[in-house]
Design goal:
- This protein is mostly beta strands.
- The protein has one domain: Lipocalin (Beta Barrel).
- 15% of the residues lie in helices and 41% in strands.
- β6 and β7 form a beta hairpin.
- The termini are far apart.
């Protein structure tokens, strides 16, 4: 029995050590999957630019220009172009074709929500591109059809 005790202690130690939780995936790892997973988008993104639009839609650098997605499926956006500053809140969810966005409060333009948007994550999760086929961009709500909002990852704050 005494010879068996050290073996049992070692076996229990090995079992406990091997069953510890894996470290959490990095943002890069979460964003490496196709299609995009919810955990990749959760966090704060900076609106860097709007592509396929005229200069009227250039983000106003005098405001924060951020988009924040929560785990619970909510979003908050603050951004602007020209002299317009928008603050909106709403819901989002991923689906088979991309993302469904529904503006619930704030400066929501009547009649353009809900939006079915296309979502693309590039550069190992560092860049988020959101577009749709409506008459306005998805969050900035700039009235240029086909425009693409380009965001840069800021982290989970």
């Amino acid at each position: 029995m005494n010879k068996l005790l050290p073996f049992l202690a070692f076996a229990i130690f090995a079992l406990v050590a091997c069953s510890e939780d894996k470290p959490e995936s990095t943002h890069s790892e979460l964003c490496a999957t196709i299609p995009v997973v919810k955990k990749c988008l959760v966090g704060r993104w900076y609106l860097d630019r709007v592509e396929k639009a005229n200069s009227l839609c250039d983000p106003n650098k005098e405001t924060e220009n951020y988009l924040k997605f929560t785990k619970k499926g909510n979003f908050s956006f603050k951004g602007g172009y020209q002299n317009l500053i928008l603050e909106t809140n709403g819901d989002w969810e991923l689906n088979e074709t991309g993302m469904k966005i529904d503006c619930e409060s704030g400066d929501c333009i009547e009649g353009i929500y809900p939006i079915d948007a296309t979502v693309e994550v590039l550069r190992s999760g560092a860049e988020l591109r959101i577009s749709n086929t409506k008459s306005h961009s998805s969050f900035l709500q700039c009235g240029v059809p086909g425009s693409i909002e380009v965001y840069t990852w800021q982290g989970n704050n």
